[in-house]
Design goal:
- The chain is an alpha+beta fold.
- The protein has one domain: Double Stranded RNA Binding Domain, CATH 3.30.160.250.
- Helices cover 34% and strands 14% of the residues.
- The protein is built from two helices and three strands; from the N terminus they run αβββα.
- The protein has helices spanning 2-10, 40-60, and strands at 14-17, 23-26, 34-37.
- Strands 1-2-3 form a three-stranded antiparallel β-sheet, covered by helices on one side.
- Strand 2 (23-26) and strand 3 (34-37) form a beta hairpin.
- The radius of gyration is 15 Å and the shape is elongated.
- It starts with a helix and ends in a 28-residue tail after the last helix.
């Protein structure tokens, strides 16, 4: 499900050519992840990596994530445990 979510989110990415050269990319539904690169392809690869890392942090913090094309990583208000119980 995570891979599908990332793929759908990347499909919403917007890339802009910067005046001084290179590209800037972001995904409007997300507040935070962005990337730049010398080429559009480099920018896209960096944006994917930043998005994946950002999602790990957001899930860890139990932040609300946008639903993307019917795919959600939210768990209906159920919070993730901050620490897993110790094994007996």
């Amino acid at each position: 499900m995570l891979t599908e979510y990332v793929e759908k989110a990347m499909g919403h990415a917007i890339y802009e050519e910067m005046e001084g050269g290179g590209f800037f990319g972001h995904i409007p539904e997300f507040k935070g992840p962005w990337a730049d690169g010398a080429t559009k392809e480099e920018c896209q690869a960096r944006l994917r990596l930043v998005l994946e890392e950002w999602l790990v942090l957001a899930l860890r913090e139990d932040d609300e994530l946008p639903e993307i094309e019917g795919v959600s990583l939210n768990f209906g208000g159920k919070r993730w445990p901050k620490r897993l119980p110790a094994a007996s």
